[in-house]
Amino acid sequence: MSKVTPATRALDAAGAAFTVHVYDYDPDAESIGLQAAAALGEDPARVLKTLMAQVDGKPVCVVVPSDQEVSMKKLAQAAGGKSAQMMKPPEAERVTGYKVGGISPFGQRKPVRTVIEQRALAHDQVYLNGGQRGLQVRLRPADVRDVLKAVVADVLA
Question: What is the mean pLDDT of residues 74-83?
Answer without folding.
Answer: 96
